[in-house]
Model the fold of this input.
Amino acid sequence: MRYLLDDLDKIKDKLRGRDLLLFLDYDGTLSPIAATPDKSVFSEGMRGSLKKLTGQPRCRIAVISGRGLENIKKKVGLKDIIYSGNHGLEIEGPQLRYKAAVSPLYKKAIGEIKDSLTAGLSKIKGAIIEDKGLSLSLHYRLVRKNDIPALKNILRRTVTDHPAKKRVMVRPGKMVFDIRPASGLDKGKVALWLLARESFRRRGRKVIPIYIGDDSTDEDAFAALKGKGITVCVGGERKSSAQYYLKDTGQVRFFLRRLDGILKEREV
Ligand SMILES: [Mg+2]
Done:
C-alpha cells in the first residue's frame, strides 16, 4: 500500500487523456466521523473543493454512502453529483434515478427486526437504531464498552430468530452494524455499474475511476475496481484491498484540490 500524496505525478500521468469518475464515501472520508450520524458536519472548505470539481467537464462525482439517499443529498447539498444511498440500494443524479426493488417479505422482516431491536436494546444506553427505509443501522459508538457484547448478542439473536433471516444480511462497519437485504447491491457492484454507464455516456473516451473510502463496506469497491482505476483508503496504512492510503479527511480535501488543479491544467 502506498501513500497517495507521494504518487501525485503518477496519478497525473494516469489521468492524461482520460475522463474521471470520482467515487467518494461520506462519513470518515468527506467528513470526520461524529459521535452520532446527525452530528456530522460537512465543512464549507470541503464543500467548496467538491463544488469546484463539479464544474470540471471531464469529471463526474458520485458520493456513495451507507446513509439514506435523502440524508446524504441534504448533507452534501451540491448539484451535478450522483448520490447513492443505502450502500447502493438507491441512486439519484443528473438523468438518473434508481431504487432497488425489495420483496414484501424483506420489508416486513426489516420492520419486525427494528421493533425487536428497539425493545431488546431499550436498556442499553447509547444504542441508536437508524431507520433508513431500505435498511437499518445500529450505531454503538456511544455504548459503554461493557455493554457491547450484550448488544451484539441481542442483534445476532434478533436476526437469527427471525423466520426471514435468509433475506437479511448484517454487515459490520465502524461502530455500526448495517442490516440490509442479503441479495442487495454493495458499493462494489454500484461502482462498477456507474463506471459502465459513465463509459457509455462518454462515447468512447476512456474513463478512469478513483474511489476514496474509509470503511469495510468500501472494501467491496476497492476489490471490484482492482486493475481498473485508483483506490484509496482513508485512515492511514492498514490491511485493505485499496492501492493507496490517505491519513484523514483533511488529506482528502488536499487531494481533491490537487485533482482540480491537474484537471484544469489538462483543459488548457
Ligand atoms: Mg465511511
